[in-house]
């Protein structure tokens, strides 16, 4: 089969290449997915670059997320799954068979049924961002009737955090950096959108709710002062991204607010948390509550361009078309 791969860590243009490799066979409890689209996340280019290096077993086919159709199953998997449309999560987690190839093999539970009402582009955009968004929202209990602040509502995690929070009954305000991103956040269903660069951003947030119950955060150091302005004893600030420099916490201000800080990383989520997320995401998908971000489609042989686009911060999702 045709696959994109790398044998070492480094810059995209130096290590990524297209090659023919033997088609993998599903083992016990596994399925093989004929990939249609492969979704790229920041974690993918960071792993490839060696910023968050993981061992390479001879070669690594990158990318966790994708959409396709199950074409074969291993022992112990219901044969009726053959022909099922699916979206994948952590396909390349401690495995060489990521989604940037014509076929990927992964544990059956990591290939989740994709409703026919959902596009392949949406399916390939879920995985890392939707699971992360769910954990940020629900690690500390239900959000029905809660006030939720989503930092960076135009990003992939922010987008699904808005949609999942709204689907499960929360009031949602989000912060963005400009009009284009504000429009994306409104389309996702945010009740209020605030430009965090505004001098009165804290006042705008407090007008929405004096204190937040959940704050989904991607830049704790940069945004903590604004977060603390709307925090109290029932606020959980949940950070899912690391900044280049570790922030210095204003401990007394955090104590005064009685705020709770939580940090999440998908690779270490408890199994029950992922099962909960997959179940809720599937329910939202079936209800039509999740939508696509703007999608940039590139052919598999332009994977270098695709990685560079994600690394440069392209708005929306970048996906590869699998031939």
Task: Give the structure's gist in a few sentences.
The chain contains eleven helices and 15 strands. With 323 residues, it is α/β, with parallel strands linked by helices.
Q: Tally the helices.
A: 11
Beta-strand percentage range: 15-25%
Provide the CATH architecture of the largest domain.
Alpha-Beta Complex
Backbone structural class: alpha/beta
In CATH, the homologous superfamily of the largest domain goes by the name Medium-chain alcohol dehydrogenases, catalytic domain
At CATH level 3, the topology of the largest domain is: Quinone Oxidoreductase, Chain A, domain 1
Shape: globular
The secondary-structure element order is EHEEHEEEEHHEHEHEHEHEHEHEHE
Name of the level-1 CATH class of the largest domain: Alpha Beta
Give the tally of structural domains: 2
Total beta strands:
15
Helix content: 25-40%
**Kindly, what is the distance between the CA atoms of the first and last residues, rounded to a whole number of angstroms?**
10 Å
Radius of gyration: 20 Å
Mean pLDDT: 97
Give your account of this protein's structure.
The protein has 323 residues and is α/β, with parallel strands linked by helices. The protein has 2 domains: 154 residues, Quinone Oxidoreductase, Chain A, domain 1, CATH 3.90.180.10; 139 residues, 3-Layer(aba) Sandwich (Rossmann fold), CATH 3.40.50.720. The protein is 30% helix and 24% strand. The strands form 3 sheets. Strands 3, 4, 5, 6, 7, 14 and 15 form a 7-stranded mixed beta sheet that branches. A 6-stranded parallel beta sheet has the order 10-9-8-11-12-13, sandwiched between helices.
């Amino acid at each position: 089969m045709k696959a994109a791969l790398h044998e070492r860590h480094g810059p995209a243009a130096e290590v990524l290449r297209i090659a023919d490799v033997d088609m993998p066979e599903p083992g016990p409890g596994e399925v093989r997915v004929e990939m249609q689209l492969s979704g790229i996340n920041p974690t993918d280019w960071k792993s490839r670059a060696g910023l968050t290096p993981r061992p390479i077993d001879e070669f690594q086919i990158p990318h966790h997320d994708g959409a396709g159709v199950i074409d074969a199953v291993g022992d112990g998997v219901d044969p009726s799954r053959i022909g099922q449309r699916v979206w994948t999560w952590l396909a390349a987690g401690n495995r060489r068979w990521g989604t940037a190839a014509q076929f990927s093999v992964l544990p059956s539970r990591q290939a989740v049924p994709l409703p026919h009402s959902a596009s392949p582009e949406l399916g390939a955009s879920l995985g890392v961002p939707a699971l992360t968004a769910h954990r940020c929202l629900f690690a500390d209990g239900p959000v029905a009737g809660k006030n939720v602040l989503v930092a960076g509502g135009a990003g992939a995690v922010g987008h699904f955090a808005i949609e999942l929070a709204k689907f499960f009954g929360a009031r949602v305000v989000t912060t963005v950096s400009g009009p284009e991103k504000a429009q994306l956040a409104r389309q996702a269903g945010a009740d209020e959108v605030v430009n965090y660069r505004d001098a009165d951003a804290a006042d705008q947030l407090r007008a929405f709710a004096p204190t937040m119950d959940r704050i989904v955060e991607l830049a704790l150091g940069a945004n903590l002062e604004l977060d603390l302005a709307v925090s109290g004893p029932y606020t959980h600030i949940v950070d899912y991204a690391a900044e280049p420099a570790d922030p210095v916490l204003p401990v007394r201000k955090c104590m005064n607010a009685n705020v709770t800080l939580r940090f999440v990383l998908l690779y270490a989520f408890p199994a029950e948390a992922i099962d909960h997320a997959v179940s809720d995401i599937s329910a939202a998908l079936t209800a039509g509550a999740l939508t696509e971000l703007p999608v940039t489609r590139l052919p598999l042989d332009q994977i270098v361009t695709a990685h560079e686009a994600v690394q440069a911060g392209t708005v929306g999702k970048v996906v590869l078309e699998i031939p």
